[in-house]
Write a structure and sequence with these properties.
Length: 310
Amino acid sequence: MSDLSNISGMKDPVYADTDAATGGEEQAVPEEGIAAVVAIQGYEGSFHQMAAQHFFGKKTGVICCATFGEVVKKALNKKESDGGVMAIENSIAGSILPNYNLLQKSKLKVVGEIYLQIRQNLLVNPGIPLEDIKEVHSHPMAIQQCLEYLDQYNWKLVETEDTALSAKHIHQHKSKHVATIASTLAASLYHLDVRTPDIHTLTNNYTRFLILQHEDLAEVIENANKASVSFHTDHSRGSLAKVLTTIAEGQINLSKLQSSPIPGSDFRYSFHADMEFDSLHQFYQVIKDMKALTEDLKIYGVYRKGKHYT
């Protein structure tokens, strides 16, 4: 890497509740001792960083970006990063549609995925008891996820830009009466106490993160069993049904089908498809058949199904 001025090299934070993983195949990770540097949206201590560390290892450095568009730009720069991590959907809130558009316009390849359970915690400066808390600062989404817990107390709720940034601020200001809602990684990075763990209302709340790399860095992944593709048809009657029938007859599981408007068109749509399969031969045979039925088809990446981390 030629420009590491805005990279945060990470220590090895202690995880109390984020090491368990179930399902999926083993992820491809760099050799022991070799730290990757990846672009993420948000600040140090964010769930994006947790996803990056689960995939690349805990020594992973991060380039913190304000927007997902910036993540794509940084991930495309081979001299600056080894790739990027981008949230693509949530089990409660659904798809992040602008990120599908960013993926479509970029030349990045999907090389993996991570499913991360979103676990929110009440964080305070060391030694601060619950009775001293007067305000809770965090991102509005995090506050909404924890209202059942927060309603027990007469605390002022203050919406902020980012969960991890709120954790950083209460650490910097040594706040004695302000708590935040954030991850255990943020607690470790900013030396905060987890006053109350797992204060979120819904426990089955997972975000799916895509691992992206420049096409020149993306390597062939052995034992791949999942792919992300984009296609559009001529929009004649039954054209989409023919494509879906081809996928089904090829014994491929269509785990995701997301439509997106084609920019500049008159209400025409392209489709993002996540496809799960048993063999690469099976997948590429279906792709060959799909090409005969579509006007355009692009493979974003062929990779292994991701683990679920709690």
